[in-house]
Design brief:
With about 725 residues, the protein is α+β, with helices and mostly antiparallel strands. The chain has a domain at about 425-725: MetI-like (MetI-like fold). The protein is built from 16 helices and 33 strands. A hairpin with a 6-residue loop joins β21 (about 265-270) and β22 (about 275-280). The longest helix has about 40 residues, at about 5-40. It is a multi-pass membrane protein. Keywords: Membrane, Transmembrane, Transmembrane helix, Transport. It holds the Pfam family BPD_transp_1. Belongs to the binding-protein-dependent transport system permease family.
Length: about 725
């Protein structure tokens, strides 16, 4: 093979290798994008509800039985129901009856409500003026590795009252304390309480009490509900009012009367956590109310969410025990699956026969429903809605969260208990990313660009040969080291010197100008010693001395503010100082970004043709005029590219943002507050996010936003750089 063929073969091989490598990189980036999108798409999947098995009551008479209690176990493999006569049955999901018993003797159930959302604990009221706690247990056991069941029903000791049978009931249980509210046909309200006291020696005493509640004369109670802790009683009236009593430890007192609807309140229910109340109306209205702090140390009931009106009166609801998902159904058999946090109707469907069910209950895992058809048969439903929390509104719009007086942006993926309402708005994280990047660029851009300008135009060549490699070497410092120094060393020291630090930049800049201005008054011998381009060597000691002087005056400056600087800014401007704040991040991120911007900008400035600067100087321009009006415009495409590279570096930075910001997802432009960024949030929460869960996919959505944001920045940078290059192509 002669040298020409060998050269052609080498060229083709190199061209193919480079092309193949580029295609592999493009394919890898596209594959990453496709993977991120595939992980995010399930967040917006629609719910699926399907009717499954139905269970007929054995030996039921021609008149449809009135079923008062129904539900399922965790795996929906056991379905149970209790009719008005107290006859209890449990079926296997495959059809056979597993257990059957009579719970009552010569009594009939007049009303019943679940104590807990898992539907395994109920309270039932009978016509003999007794209230019984009812507990269902599926009796799960394993035999040769196969899960089997021995269902059991048990009634607790009865609570009794005097008067008429109850037509409405509501109950709550917290620990060993039981509280039941009853409404009779004559519009009387009663609260029955059972409190168990345990002694240190192991014994216990049970104390029952009965309290009568006065209903305003003009109100007729049509619906009843207790909050989860049993501390507040809510009653809906035929006039559309929502009455609220505080039960507490003493006598009940009416604390609120709210005109919720223009029609009668036909149903009340509560959601997970026991604080939010579902209000259904005879006109089909569906609302969610909860107590919120509207003023300091004051709470009141507020209407938080309103849903689309149903076509018939609302007759019942069911709430999930996993999230704020709830079902409402109307008298015409229409049902809607709603999510309270976002006020979104997830699904609309209809029960069989176009009539409202006698009862509907969520399965414990919220993966199904159990309803009682008008003919008394039990219907099992499957439900698949794994991510109701992650709507577009929840992620990017203000949401009225439970306990908040108004709609707001908030991020809090986990809480103290499983009942805490998840807050997954990405807006505070996007805001934090932009805030951290902005302050980092404000700190680093002038330093890096002017340092590059001085180095390329004014600095002595021998000194530049030392400075530039050192600056490029700074870019190799791991960001975790900068984050560690910023969070543990810089932040506490900056807090101690913050009053004077705010004024130190002005003082140091004035020092530089003063020293530079005195150079012209120096004698010729001193000017010969200070060779042009080496001024920075002599300026550094001056700046260090000035910095020591400034820091020594910190106590005096702090004393000028009554009560100290931090107390003064809080009292006059309502600004709290967090030790890890935007100032710390700006300095730390600036140190990470400065070497990159400096290096690329210096290369661009040094690449400006020498004949341009020589011509400018020959025409009488000063070196500074030449640098400002000739060198900078000619190098502007490269400088802009440097800024965009630094911007992208700051947006995607993780460790510095994680260690120096305090990770507080708040939306505040204050220099003295912390924040949380998208990248830091991913690093913080991905180890604890269950695979496939909502948080897991929201974190992938955060990564997709970072990907898109970086792509947008790079595309914009390339367009602007191309136009700048065309504009200054005459050079």
């Amino acid at each position: 093979m002669n040298r020409y063929r060998r050269r052609n073969w080498t060229d083709r091989t190199a061209r193919s290798t480079i092309t193949g490598g580029g295609l592999i990189i493009i394919a890898s980036i596209l594959a990453m994008l496709v993977f991120l999108v595939s992980q995010c798409v399930p967040l917006w999947s629609s719910p699926r509800i399907h009717a499954e098995e139905s269970f007929a009551v054995p030996g039921a008479p021609s008149t449809p039985p009135s079923m008062m209690v129904a539900g399922a176990n965790d795996f929906r493999e056991v379905i149970f129901a209790v009719d008005a006569a107290g006859h209890a049955r449990a079926w296997s999901s495959e059809g056979p009856v597993l257990a059957e018993t009579d719970l009552l003797q010569n009594e009939r159930i007049t009303c019943a409500r679940p104590l807990q959302l898992d539907a395994e604990r109920w309270v039932i009221a009978t016509d003999s003026l007794h209230v019984y706690p009812l507990v269902f247990s599926d009796g799960q056991y394993f035999e040769e590795g196969v899960r089997k069941y021995r269902p059991e029903f048990s009634l607790g000791p009865a609570l009794s009252w005097q008067g008429q049978p109850a037509q409405l009931i509501a109950g709550s249980q917290e620990g060993d304390d039981l509280r039941v509210a009853l409404a009779s046909r004559d519009n009387h309200l009663l609260v029955l309480s059972r409190h168990e006291k345990k002694s240190l020696l192991g014994g216990s005493t049970v104390q029952d009490s009965e309290t009568t509640i006065d209903v305003p004369d003009a109100s007729r109670v049509t619906a009843l509900e207790l909050d989860g802790a049993g501390k507040h009683l809510y009653a809906g009236t035929a006039e559309g009012s929502l009455l609220e009593w505080s039960l507490g430890e003493g006598d009940p007192r009416l604390v609120g009367s709210h005109q919720a609807l223009t029609a009668a309140v036909s149903h009340l229910g509560r959601l997970l956590g026991g604080s939010s109340i579902v209000v259904g109306g005879a006109d089909g209205s569906v609302q969610v109310w909860f107590r919120a702090r509207v003023e300091e140390d004051q709470q009141r009931l507020v209407q938080a969410h309103s849903f689309a009106r149903m076509d018939a009166p609302v007759v019942g609801s069911a709430a999930s025990s996993r999230n704020r998902l709830f079902l409402t159904y109307a008298a015409d058999g229409q049902a809607r699956l709603n999510f309270a946090t976002t006020a979104q109707t997830r699904k609309r469907f209809a029960f069989a026969n176009g009539a409202a069910p006698q009862l509907a209950i969520f399965a414990p895992r919220a993966d199904g429903l159990v309803s009682v058809n008008p003919n008394g048969t039990i219907q099992s439903w499957s439900l698949h809605d794994p991510h109701p929390e992650a709507s577009v509104r929840a992620l990017f719009a203000p949401v009225h969260y439970e306990g908040f007086p108004d709609a707001t942006y908030a991020y809090q993926s986990t809480g103290a208990t499983d009942e805490t309402e998840p807050k997954i708005s990405l807006v505070p994280l996007i805001f934090g990313s932009l805030k951290g990047t902005l302050y980092a660029m404000l700190f680093s851009t002038p330093i890096a660009v002017f340092a590059a300008l001085y180095t390329s135009v004014f600095m002595n060549r021998r000194l530049r040969a030392v400075v530039k490699p050192v600056m490029e070497l700074m870019a190799t410092i791991p960001s975790v080291v900068l984050g560690l120094l910023a969070g543990l060393w810089l932040a506490p020291r900056l807090q101690q010197t913050m009053p004077i630090a705010l004024f130190s930049f002005i003082f140091l800049a004035g020092t530089v100008l003063l020293v530079g201005g005195t150079r012209r008054f120096l004698p010729n011998r001193a000017k010969q010693i200070l060779r042009p381009g080496t001024e920075v060597i002599y300026l550094i000691p001056v700046l260090l001395v000035a910095l020591v002087i400034v820091l020594s005056a910190n106590g005096m400056v702090d004393g000028l503010f009554p009560g100290g600087f931090f107390e003064w800014i809080y009292r006059h401007f309502d600004i709290r100082y967090d030790q890890r704040n935007a100032v710390v991040v700006g300095i730390a991120m600036g140190l990470a970004v400065i070497p990159i911007i400096f290096s690329v900008s210096e290369d661009a400035l040094s690449s400006v043709p020498r004949h341009l600067t020589a011509g400018s100087l020959a025409l009488g321009a000063t070196p500074w005029q030449t640098a400002w009006r000739v060198v900078l415009p000619a190098a502007s495409p490269g400088i802009f590219s440097a800024l965009m590279i630094g911007f992208g570096r700051a947006v995607g930075e993780t460790m510095i943002m994680l260690m120096a910001t305090g990770n507080t997802p708040i939306m505040d432009w204050s220099l003295f507050n912390g924040f949380r960024t998208l990248s830091a949030n991913i690093a913080t929460e991905i180890p604890e996010a269950p695979q496939g869960a909502t948080l897991y996919r929201v974190l992938f959505l955060s990564a997709l936003l970072l990907f898109a944001f970086t792509l947008l920045i790079n595309t914009t940078a390339e367009i602007v750089r191309s136009r700048l290059r065309q504009r200054y192509s005459r050079f």
